[in-house]
Amino acid sequence: MYIPNYSGHFYGNTSFGASNTATSILNAGRYDTAFMYAGINKRDRLFEIPVGNSNGLLFGYQNDNIESGYFATYN
Question: Is residue 75 part of a domain?
Answer without folding.
Answer: no
